[in-house]
């Protein structure tokens, strides 16, 4: 119920993960249609970059202002930090505070004077400002690190490498918020170089009971995980896409003209294949390098036809093999009969 600095940085990390999810899935999905020259209806989706900027901006971000409060001389309290937020973030559409002199929240009794509220991607979260400055300023001072590094115990010495006199840094140790922000930036940079696959887990109820689904809880998680936007983009676009070469290789046995081998461009082979199968034109589109299939049912139909065709081919191979085997046995028996008959006649 009482969210403090710890929950704030956790939610900041969640916002960054949601941002990269949007960039790598929804945004990439729509950009691929543009690259492939596919006509489709653009779907608007919420990009939470504005929320990330509210937290991490180097000049006006909440973390930057928190660090500034921790480093400035004079009396520094959580109240002075909140006052600074109210001055800088008063007009931000995702920041709410009763002390921000904003008429929208002056009479909001659900928002105490010692709190501020951020409208995150998943919903509004209220933070208790008490403890923000102390927790962010939780520094391990240089003399403590040096004392630990001089310990005779090897493990303790290894845990405080910054205490090594040869590596002394006269700069002030970074704040907890700065360290967390740097760690998140490193994580995002690492994820950008990968091709991640997302597994979204839905908790059906709070009691961990089987066959029980709490509708409100499930709907909240669906909105929180961004699944609604993902489904809208998928429905408006194409559920399946594949380069022409592997598509032709997989389904070429469904058409006499492409089986067993197609002499020509892969795209032309796919066009002949889909015309032969009489698939409605609204169910697919030809991109520059890929075939796009709109409805999963069309793909299921292709898979069913392929499965049936493979069974037919297996039956054909088995029939030919059995015929060859029986004919070979017949010819062998016929030859043996002639040999036996010739020897019998000679004997008779």
UniProtKB/TrEMBL annotation:
GO molecular function, one term: calmodulin binding
Keyword Metal-binding: no
Superkingdom of this protein's organism: Eukaryota
Keywords in alphabetical order: Actin-binding, ATP-binding, Calmodulin-binding, Motor protein, Myosin, Nucleotide-binding, Repeat
Name of this chain's protein: MYO1B protein
Organism, scientific name: Crypturellus undulatus
Keyword Repeat found: yes
Protein family (similarity comment): Belongs to the TRAFAC class myosin-kinesin ATPase superfamily. Myosin family.
Region called Actin-binding, residue ranges: 184-206
Cellular component annotations (GO), alphabetically ordered: brush border; cytoplasm; microvillus; myosin complex; plasma membrane
UniProt GO BP: actin filament organization; actin filament-based movement; endocytosis
PANTHER family: MYOSIN, UNCONVENTIONAL MYOSIN-IB
SUPFAM superfamilies per the UniProt record, alphabetical: P-loop containing nucleoside triphosphate hydrolases (SSF52540)
InterPro entries from the UniProt entry: Kinesin_motor_dom_sf, Myosin_head_motor_dom-like, P-loop_NTPase
Domain Myosin motor: 1-307
Gene3D superfamilies the record matches: 1.20.5.190, 1.20.58.530, 6.20.240.20, Kinesin motor domain (3.40.850.10)
């Amino acid at each position: 119920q009482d969210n403090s600095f710890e929950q704030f940085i956790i939610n900041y990390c969640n916002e960054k993960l949601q941002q990269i999810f949007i960039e790598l899935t929804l945004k990439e999905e729509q950009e691929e249609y543009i690259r492939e020259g596919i006509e489709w209806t653009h779907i608007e989706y919420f990009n939470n970059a504005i929320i990330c900027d509210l937290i991490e901006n180097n000049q006006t971000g909440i973390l930057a202002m928190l660090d500034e409060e921790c480093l400035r001389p004079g009396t520094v309290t959580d109240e002075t930090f909140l006052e600074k937020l109210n001055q800088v973030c008063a007009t931000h559409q995702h920041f709410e505070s009763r002390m921000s002199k904003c008429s929208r929240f002056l009479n909001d009794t659900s928002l105490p004077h010692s709190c501020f509220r951020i409208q995150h991607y998943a919903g509004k979260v209220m933070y208790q400002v008490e403890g923000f400055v102390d927790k962010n300023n939780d520094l391990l001072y240089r003399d403590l690190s040096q004392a630990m590094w001089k310990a005779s115990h090897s493990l303790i010495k290894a845990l405080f490498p910054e205490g090594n006199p040869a590596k002394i840094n006269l700069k002030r140790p970074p704040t907890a918020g700065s360290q967390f922000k740097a760690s998140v930036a490193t994580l995002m940079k690492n994820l950008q170089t990968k091709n991640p696959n997302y597994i979204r887990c839905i908790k059906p109820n709070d009691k961990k009971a089987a066959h029980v689904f709490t509708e409100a809880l499930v709907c909240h998680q669906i909105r929180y995980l961004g699944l609604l936007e993902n489904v809208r983009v998928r429905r408006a676009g194409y559920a399946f896409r594949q380069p022409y070469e592997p598509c032709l290789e997989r389904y070429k046995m469904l058409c006499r003209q492409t089986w067993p081998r197609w002499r020509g461009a892969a795209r032309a082979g796919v066009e002949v294949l889909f015309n032969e199968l009489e698939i409605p034109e609204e169910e697919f589109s030809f991109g520059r390098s890929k075939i796009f299939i709109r409805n999963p049912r069309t793909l299921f139909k292709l898979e069913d036809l392929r499965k049936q065709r493979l069974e037919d081919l297996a039956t054909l191979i088995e029939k030919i093999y059995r015929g060859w085997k029986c004919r070979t046995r017949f010819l062998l028996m016929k030859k043996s009969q002639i040999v036996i008959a010739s020897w019998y006649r000679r004997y008779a």
